[in-house]
Amino acid sequence: MLSLRSYAVGRWIEGTGTPQLLLNPATEEPLAQASSDGVDLAAALDHARRIGGPALRALSFAGRGALLKSIAQAMQAHRDELLDLAVANGGNTRSDGKFDVEGAIATLFAYAEIGEKLGSAKFLVDGEGVQLGRSPRFHGQHVCVPRAGVAVHINAFNFPAWGFAEKAAAALLAGMPVLSKPATSSAMLAHRIMEILVDAKILPEGALSLLVGSPRQLPSLLGAQDVLAFTGSGDTAARIRALPNIISESVRVNVEADSLNAAVLGPDVEPGSDMYELFLTEVQRDITQKAGQKCTAIRRVVVPAAVASNVRDDLVEMLGAVRVGNPALSEVRMGPLATAAQLADARAGVQRLAAEGNLAFGSATPFAAEGVEAGTGFFISPVLVEFAAGAAASAAHAHEVFAPVASLLAYSGEAPEAAAIVARGNGGLVSSLYSDDAGWIEATVFGIAPGNGRIYLGHPKIELSPGPGTVLPQLVHGGPGRAGGGEELGGARALAFYMQRVALEGSRPVIQKLLGTQPG
Ligand code: NAP
Predict the structure, then answer these.
(1) Fewer beta carbons within 10 angstroms: which end of the chain, N or C?
(2) Which of 158, 456, 477, 483 is CA-nearest to residue 289?
């Protein structure tokens, strides 16, 4: 069986001890094994800090951007192989796999372009200089320089390619070396990407390391110049944040966690209209794409009570048409969940929702998936749970079921009630609004804005609308509260996490000469 290795201190290292098995989640066939035991984590971090950091900091933004472009091109050259792994180890349909792998490549290209635009600089001049006293000689200027530590990236199982790439793109461009740890259950894709990059000798030594298997005590080895970007459950994030060194060393931590993303239909939208059809299409796509294992997936479908039964009947019909089964089959539209543990969690979550609402479609019980032996694979049907009054529901606003599961919640159609219902999620990555009523849009956008990282305004005139579930490199990804309080991406904004902002204060000519900002 294939043994996944870690890449650290400039070489591949095979783990010792009892490995964890990686399965095909549709067939439960073992595909590979992984263990991080025996990898000297302190040495791996030290090597990245000492060798990788200086090598990256010696390059300009354009030079680092060129590295990102080469990474993207290398991945593109192996696209089909990577998609096959996304299907086999991730339970993705080919289309789901493209969402992950092509999303990763596109994000790397986007950051390569930002690097090219930032040009020959090695640090960022932040904003305009300011006169600090009566004399214009006394001058202040902020600059952002790369941190001198290592960026540790801990990723969730659902986007092994994109999660790796979107974090690495920002860190490498900022000038920080990366140690990336994919979730073990779906690590084959990240591992293969690392093999491709090492074979292609794209990056300077120490700039990128990979830890496969358990994180062991990795977060507790971080110090003041290091940063940790984590994607996963709120519970794990809370444990990491409470580590003594994270507190005492003020280790910068970015968390992307759970989210009960809402899609809200405005009161002006008539069943059958283009806006209504767009709403249904995007809700259905978000419930079923990647079997609902998307942090940005719509979990709460909030609709005026007057059309709630139309929406229910239409969604039930659409969900009923989705073919669920082995994602290796081209006719299958939705694959399994990633692991047996995720399936058990999802079933428990559906029961929790159904205890309060009515199951309009699907259930927690096992069902026959296409193309696999009966009883094999971590499959669940799409599930829609209906609640008569959205504001009165409880579990729907409190519990994220990381699966193809959504709650249908009725409201009055009034903007304040819509905003109050969205706010019950206690902080989200994205909410989406579907309406042509400018007054309702304004009241709802500003009602929900403080609780969301992104607001998507759906409109049928947007060609090839990606829907709210697609994270774009130009826009921030993250959200307050339950969503972790983090922020990734957002174009050049993402670099700030990996850089130290320093205020320089002194004589204007000296500072301007130092920064190369002297006029004329
Ligand atoms: P998880 O159990 O928290 O695992 C996430 C990652 O953390 C994995 O790489 C895991 O490694 C690692 N990990 C586990 N325990 C750790 C510890 N004590 N210290 C350091 N790392 C540790 O989360 P999950 O259940 O796999 O992921 C699903 C959750 O992620 C969902 O709740 C979803 O909402 C969230 N998510 C959020 C986003 C976002 O961008 N906001 C994106 C995707 C997913 P092992 O795999 O080796 O255990």
Answers:
(1) C
(2) 158
Report the C-alpha gap between 423 and 479 in whole angstroms: 12
- CA 358–ligand 1 middle distance (angstroms): 30
Q: Are 149 and 181 in contact (CB under 8 A)?
A: no
Backbone angles phi, psi at 266, to 5 degrees: -75, 160
Q: What share of the chain is helix, strand, coil (3-state, %, to 5)?
A: 40, 20, 35
**What digits encode the pLDDT tens for the residues 301-357?**
999 999 999 999 999 999 999 999 999 999 999 999 999 999 999 999 999 999 999
First to last CA, the chain: 65
230 φ, ψ (degrees, to nearest 5): -120, 135
Residue 361: closest CA among 397, 317, 396, 403:
317
Say if residues 429 and 452 touch (Cβ distance below 8 Å). Answer: yes
Q: CA-CA distance, 447 to 257, in Å (whole number)? A: 23
Maximum pairwise Cα distance, the chain: 81
The residues annotated as belonging to the active site are 256, 295
Distance CA 263, CA 398 (A): 16
